[in-house]
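Lecture notes, continued. The same structure-token format from the folding unit now serves as the input rather than the output. Read the line below as a description of shape only.
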């Protein structure tokens, strides 16, 4: 399919959104309708919609039609994963990006976090101190998941979600190969993050986030 025809379908959907005819989770017009309005074959429209689905823009539901989902971080996640497999990016580079984004997410979370979210983070942290390695990996993921969502910044959340798969793999790789002392240091970083969040200590919290990523970074370099 020519790029021009693919772009026609994209622009059609964007214009329908701008005009208020389509909203998130709405069903898109039928392929026949779009083909007639765009003067394209139904096959070309169908191929364009399939591409949009692969990008996370929409979801095709069997027997029902195509729905606008806006899950665009899906495409970013797949791109990052492929770049990692092709050795175009490394754990260290993903770590650098997450460090920068999470530091800002922490600043926002301090301002926006609710008492209930604080309670959830406390529960996760308490469990991190006694669990075995498999459970610790999951608890680390859950801690960052809760904290990032407390930022209430949808773009930050989407970026961090897209990086989550590689980040989780890097943390697992690190935790399975380091000493108990290093694991304890990692848990301590989380304790500092939460303590500073409760006390609204932004500078101390950002320092704790950086200590966490410094620890991961040192493990990456040690393995080279």
């Amino acid at each position: 399919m020519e790029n021009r025809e693919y772009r026609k379908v994209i622009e059609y959907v964007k214009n329908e959104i701008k005009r208020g005819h389509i909203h998130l989770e709405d069903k898109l017009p039928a392929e026949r309708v779009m083909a007639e309005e765009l003067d394209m074959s139904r096959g070309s429209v169908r191929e364009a919609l399939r591409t949009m689905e692969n990008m996370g823009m929409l979801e095709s539901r069997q027997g029902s039609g195509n729905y606008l989902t806006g899950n665009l971080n899906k495409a970013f996640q797949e791109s990052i994963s492929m770049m990692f497999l092709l050795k175009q990016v490394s754990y260290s580079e993903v770590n650098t990006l997450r460090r920068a984004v999470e530091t800002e997410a922490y600043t926002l979370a301090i301002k926006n976090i609710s008492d209930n979210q604080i309670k959830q983070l406390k529960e996760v942290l308490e469990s991190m101190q006694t669990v075995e390695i498999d459970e610790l990996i999951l608890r680390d993921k859950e801690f960052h998941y809760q904290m990032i969502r407390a930022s209430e910044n949808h773009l930050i959340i989407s970026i961090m979600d897209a990086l989550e798969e590689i980040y989780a793999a890097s943390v697992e790789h690190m935790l399975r190969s380091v000493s108990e002392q290093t694991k304890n240091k990692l848990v301590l970083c989380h304790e500092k993050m939460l303590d500073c969040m409760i006390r609204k200590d932004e500078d101390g919290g950002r320092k704790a986030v950086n200590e966490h990523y410094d620890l991961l970074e040192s493990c990456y370099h040690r393995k080279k």
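Point for the exam: DSSP finds ten helices and two strands in the chain.
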